[in-house]
Amino acid sequence: MDVKLKCHVAPMKKWPQGLTGVTENISRNGVLVSCAGGCAGEQPRVGEMVTVEIELPENPVFGRKCIHCQATVVRVSGEAGQPFRVAFSVNQMKFAEYASPLGQFQEIEAGAGNLQV
User: pLDDT by residue (tens digit) across 29-54?
Assistant: First the structure.
């Protein structure tokens, strides 16, 4: 599904810094993220495990939520220091409360938590 949502990608191991991008599309098993301006740091490497947090539009009833994914980098296209795309294979997905723009999210305890993908 083609969806343009702001997201944050954070390393789980060696990768020195995270990045912020916009989703190009999302499926049950993967996410494609476009990283334009502000992504001048080192690109993630194929095979690395990352956390992808996708901001959802605010809802007047439920407030701000996000989709929190544990994912593996499967493809990186583009030159270092230039806009690039990263494709992720989603290993685990859950809905969470949106806590801050710094990528700190809190898991929802009841209902939609822990969607296994």
Answer: 999 999 876 565 567 889 999 999 99
